[in-house]
Write a structure and sequence with these properties.
It comes from Pseudogulbenkiania subflava DSM 22618. By secondary structure, the chain is an alpha+beta fold. The chain has 4 helices and 6 strands.
């Protein structure tokens, strides 16, 4: 009997261009609809995350960002191309799952950081 995957794997990925959401269904039955803006501001790229804790770059003005392309990377990740030109983050299946599970917490944290910086989603 095979050992279970440490991270659920996606069974279906759909881009909803009108609502600007990425729908991902995983093999454990979890299903998430992640807004493009959320995926953009939580990009795993060094450009957004910085090079270490405390070096993150707050992303502003991303309310209307859209995804223009999805490119599978091996059997472990998804490269997402955004219409603002950002395309350098690789979203592992584990990271996409984490973004789904922790959406409410992460989104509120982002809104709080925007407010603290006096910045806007627009």
């Amino acid at each position: 009997m095979a050992a279970p995957h440490p991270t659920p794997l996606p069974t279906e990925i759909k881009l909803h261009t009108q609502s600007k959401r990425l729908e991902i269904t995983f093999d454990d039955g979890a299903r998430f609809e992640l807004p493009c803006e959320y995926l953009r501001v939580y990009s795993p790229s060094a450009e957004v995350r910085g090079h270490g804790v405390g070096n993150e770059v707050l992303q502003v003005g991303k309310r209307h960002v859209a995804i223009t392309a999805l490119e599978p990377v091996g059997h472990y990740a998804l490269k997402i191309v955004f219409d603002d030109g950002h395309d350098s983050g690789l979203y592992s299946w584990a990271y996409l799952y984490e973004l789904g599970v922790k959406h409410d917490q992460y989104w509120q944290d982002y809104l709080d950081r925007l407010a603290a910086a006096g910045a806007s989603r627009e």
